[in-house]
């Protein structure tokens, strides 16, 4: 399938999707409202994340935003008017078990959040749902939930204690503090911080490094890491062994061994 066929725009136009060189880039596309989450955007983003996870050609996913914000949370203007995600009509049309942070946590494909600007509330939880976070120098993480009378509704109370420990998570959530990109790096919530102009280039560089590896092995490793969060060590070792058995039979493993013996870079096909 050629590149023109691999790029698409959702019906609402609020989320863009493009696949190049085994890398899917999903872009929140409502810069005029700082990419705040609406019902159509949430549904489109969920659908495209699932699509990327199911696409055999995709080996890594980059999630980012257009404009000066990654995602400034829920669209509060719609919330005030009664047409937002908290309204009764929206509640009946949305499956809260199948939203972007939940899908991100369950995906086997590695995910990188290229945080191009402010990530507040729902946007912060969505960024935390990605495996790797690369932040522009101007970007921020804002845990402003308690300042709006709510709790982190999309995974923050699950992600943060596991990422930075109970004490730091408590400090961040209870104060509703905003962290700069550098502070996010110091707290362990960002992998690296780069100049704004270098953000997507660096995200693609990391994605290409991931995509060059055996995709079935990478995805199995992510599944094992996810399972290990809730397993005893003996159970985990047993499950890792069960994951190894089918990998031993793949063409990619044979290619990896052959490339090593021939002192060349391997060319994996995901088989």
Key structural traits:
single chain; 271 residues; alpha/beta; 2-enoyl-CoA Hydratase, Chain A, domain 1; Lyase 2-enoyl-coa Hydratase, Chain  A, domain 2; 2 domains; seven-stranded mixed sheet; four-stranded mixed sheet; 46% helix; globular; disordered N terminus
Characterization of this structure:
There is one protein chain. The chain contains 13 helices and 11 strands. Helix content is 46%, strand content 17%. Residues 1-5 and 87-92 have low confidence and may be disordered. A hairpin with a 5-residue loop joins β1 (8-9) and β2. The longest helix is centred in the first third of the chain and has 16 residues, at 39-54. By secondary structure, the chain is an alpha/beta fold. The strands form 2 sheets. A 7-stranded mixed sheet has the order 1-2-3-4-6-8-11, with helices on both faces. It has 2 domains: 3-211, 2-enoyl-CoA Hydratase, Chain A, domain 1; 215-261, Lyase 2-enoyl-coa Hydratase, Chain  A, domain 2. The protein has helices at residues 3-6, 39-54, 76-81, 88-93, 100-106, 122-128, 156-164, 166-175, 181-187, 199-211, 215-228, 233-248, 251-261; strands spanning 8-9, 15-20, 23-28, 60-65, 69-71, 111-115, 118-120, 132-136, 140-142, 178-180, 192-194.
List the helices and strands and how they pair.
Blueprint: H1 3-6, E1 8-9, E2 15-20, E3 23-28, H2 39-54, E4 60-65, E5 69-71, H3 76-81, H4 88-93, H5 100-106, E6 111-115, E7 118-120, H6 122-128, E8 132-136, E9 140-142, H7 156-164, H8 166-175, E10 178-180, H9 181-187, E11 192-194, H10 199-211, H11 215-228, H12 233-248, H13 251-261
Parallel strand pairs: 3-4, 4-6, 5-7, 6-8, 7-9, 8-11
Antiparallel strand pairs: 1-2, 2-3, 9-10
């Amino acid at each position: 399938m050629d590149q023109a066929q691999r790029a698409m725009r959702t019906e609402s136009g609020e989320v863009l999707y493009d696949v190049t060189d085994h890398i899917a880039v999903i872009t929140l596309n409502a810069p005029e409202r700082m990419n705040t989450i609406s019902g159509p955007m949430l549904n489109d983003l969920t659908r495209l994340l699932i699509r990327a996870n199911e696409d055999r050609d995709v080996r890594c996913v980059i999630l980012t935003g257009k404009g000066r914000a990654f995602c400034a949370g829920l669209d509060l203007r719609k919330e005030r008017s009664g047409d937002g995600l908290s309204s009764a009509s929206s509640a009946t049309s949305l499956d809260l078990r199948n939203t972007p942070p939940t899908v991100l946590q369950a995906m086997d494909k590695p995910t990188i959040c290229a945080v191009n600007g402010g990530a507040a509330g729902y946007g912060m939880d969505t960024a935390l749902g990605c495996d790797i976070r690369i932040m522009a120098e101007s970007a921020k993480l804002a845990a402003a939930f308690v300042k709006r009378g709510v709790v982190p509704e999309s995974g923050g109370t699950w992600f943060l204690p596991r990422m930075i420990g109970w004490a730091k998570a408590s400090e961040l959530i209870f104060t509703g503090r905003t962290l700069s990109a550098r502070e996010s790096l110091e707290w362990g919530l960002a992998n690296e911080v780069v100049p704004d102009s270098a953000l997507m280039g660096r995200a693609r560089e990391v994605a290409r490094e991931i995509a060059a590896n055996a995709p079935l092995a990478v995805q199995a490793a992510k599944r094992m890491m996810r399972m290990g969060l809730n397993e005893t060590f003996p159970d985990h070792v047993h499950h890792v062994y069960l994951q190894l058995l089918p990998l031993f039979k793949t063409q990619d493993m044979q290619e990896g061994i052959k490339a090593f013996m021939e002192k060349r870079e391997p060319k994996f096909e995901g088989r």
